[in-house]
Amino acid sequence: MLKILRNFLPFKAIGDKPLARILNYLDIFGLFQVDPFGYPLLLKRIVIFIAGWPTYWRLAVANKLTIEGGNYLKNLPNTNVLFISNHQTYFADVITFYHIFSAAKWGMYRKLYPFYLFSPRAKTFYVAARETMKSGFIPKLFSLAGAIMVDRSWRAKGENVQRGVDTSAADSVQQGLNYGWVVTFPQGTTTAYAPIRKGTAHLIKDNNPVVVPVVIDGFRRAFNKTGLTYKKRNTNLKVRFKQPIYFDKDQPLEEIVAMVTKIIEQNVPENIAEWKAEAENLNS
């Protein structure tokens, strides 16, 4: 109970201005608090509140959401937690995480009862492609809830490209980790069994966060690629949290990549690997 009550207390203010610190300690509702990227927490909570009601219906009423391993969220620290997950749609996946994290703030770890939307968890961020979050009004609205936007070095406008790595992305993710929880999809795409990008391994080595693996299923069957339109209702949506782990700072990047691939269950199944090999041999 004390842990849950602490979730509603204001965090230490960012900066050294005495007035800001005083207002922050009195500011239970987050009226004066801003995140490291300059967004007011009140604005983030309003966005989550507005987006939360219709998306709750899509996840828990039109479909059937099952949460496994939610108890692993109980004793997590309030900062420097990195959730790594496979990816199936642009928005439905991360929206589901926001619902679950907000419910956990209220001490609910297995079911969603949407009264948590009146005080959702606002110190949450997610890594997303900049071009996706700038593609329309709804993505731009969702970005206000905590998007850490990065420029993908390998893909743009649906085509493979080669360009310099976005070096500012690591700094932005570090800021998010220092302030709260960050969700990342280390494959960088909604394609199943895509390779894990080394950027995630660098984040783990540089920040030494608590890493929480997550495996999701059913979203690709229930929604279209954006996650905003139904494909099939009454679909079983599954979110499975695994035991939090720490990586060794001295682990090689390749080893971290291999471990991440395994723990989010994105190793290519043997039959698919054989099929791909045969296809490549036929085309060569």
What are the defining features of this structure?
single chain, 284 residues, alpha/beta, Glycerol-3-phosphate (1)-acyltransferase, 2 domains, seven-stranded mixed sheet, two-stranded antiparallel sheet, 11 helices, 9 strands, 39% helix
Structural summary, described in words:
The protein is an alpha/beta fold. The chain folds into 2 domains: 1-33, no CATH class; 35-154 and 163-266, 3-Layer(aba) Sandwich (Glycerol-3-phosphate (1)-acyltransferase), CATH 3.40.1130.10. Helices cover 39% and strands 15% of the residues. It has helices spanning 2-6, 18-26, 41-61, 92-105, 130-133, 137-143, 168-179, 198-207, 219-222, 253-263, 270-283, and strands at residues 64-68, 81-85, 124-129, 147-150, 155-156, 159-160, 181-184, 210-217, 236-241. The strands form 2 sheets. Strands 1-9-8-2-7-3-4 form a 7-stranded mixed β-sheet, sandwiched between helices. A two-stranded antiparallel ribbon has the order 5-6. A hairpin with a 2-residue loop joins strand 5 and strand 6. The longest helix is centred in the N-terminal third of the chain and has 21 residues, at 41-61. InterPro entries: Plipid/glycerol_acylTrfase (IPR002123). Pathway: Lipid metabolism.
- N/C terminus separation: 63 Å
**Major β-sheet annotation:** 7 strands, mixed
Helix-strand pattern, N to C? HHHEEHEHHEEEHEHEHEHH
Q: Assign an overall shape.
A: globular
CATH architectural category of the largest domain: 3-Layer(aba) Sandwich
Low-confidence regions: none
CATH level-four homologous superfamily name of the largest domain: Glycerol-3-phosphate (1)-acyltransferase
Count of individual domains: 2
CATH topology of the largest domain: Glycerol-3-phosphate (1)-acyltransferase
